[in-house]
Predict the structure.
Amino acid sequence: MNPLVLLLGSFFALIALRVNIGFALILSSVLVILVEGRPLASVVNQMYAGIDSFPLLAVPFFMFLGRILNAGSITARLLAVADATVGHVKGGLGHVNVFVSMVFASLSGSAAADTASVGSILIPAMKKAGYDPAFAVALTAASSTLGVIIPPSIILIIYGAFGNVSIGALFLGGVVPGLVIGLFMMAYTYVLALRHGYPSTPFPGVAAAGKALWRGTAPLLIPVFVLGGVVTGVFTPTEAAIAAVLWALVLTFIVYRDVPLRRLPRLLGDAAIDFSVPLFTVAGAGIFGWLISYLGAAAIVVDFITAQTTDPLGIMLLLIGFLLLIGTVLNPISAVLIFLPIIQALGTQAGIHPVHLGVLTTVTLSVGLITPPYGICLLIASQIGQVPLGRAMLAVAPIVGISIGVAILSLFLPDLMTALPRAAFPNQF
């Protein structure tokens, strides 16, 4: 049997049997290595090479940051800022949902953390206010995917670290499409609010709004530390993550004092556990991705696609379709690590800039967080809202179209993803 067919076939067979993705990557790789007669030491070497990356250290710090935000009153303060800013617009709670997800995305970079924290507050509130429960679940899950796109995105860090692309440029590249998707979600919410009579919350008054904004100012400095520090070269992404964690610790344990200090070891332990599973997957993807390259998968896929079309637009549309397909069964981190050689080979063939390609890949793979069978954000939100997954899938379908539409739009308007990074990093273009 062709070793590449054996590698991919055994991997997806193990996934279908619900084997942990990290084990599936390693077991399928070991099988091919044994068949090929290569030394098993290659497995250990490539797994170690997969995790031997300094930028990768930013990921556990951002996960720890998410734990800190959820433990204290920071999330509640951000909700108050969102309510004071957009809550009085028709469909107010829906706009608050999207707004706070956009802000939360710039703090933790984690979609699942956003779904769990924001959803546990806003989904019950939206249901109580008369919103369709399926819509509340769908909007919460979909807006949470902005955490994958708006910096500091963990996926963009992974892509930059393993794809040899400037993480700072990728961060800036994710800003505009993330904001555009968020604004389109708000527009969709407004249309549904008019159609179904969803309420808005009364404007609290200038004084109350000013107080909410003041109370949320300190947490909103976190994106300044991260994005500003990385773009100006003051911080590496890892150092920026550490600075953000330190600021969040000062706010939570010293300024606000709403979490007892004795909880800190538990938060650290939870963050370590949160990181252990994706780190194991990264290690497994190290050997799997190496085999993908070694067996010439990128050249095979490029040859196959260029046999269908040599038009750059056609190649990129097929790549988007490919990413949407694998996103339904793999989380974005695994998808990037496993198929990065293929993604970059197709991007080179189509002549797309590496920064544009990285952001486009991230936006497209974010859809997989709300499309079954993987769809972790939709699963979490549907459990919180006690809505059957089938109803949630129907409700989220129009919002899925927004993200896909922005990804396709960027093929015609590349400045959507490259204008900001080109201005800040002209040497990268």
Notes: Residues 264-294 form the longest helix (31 residues). The mean pLDDT is 85. The CA atoms of residues 65 and 245 lie 5 Å apart.
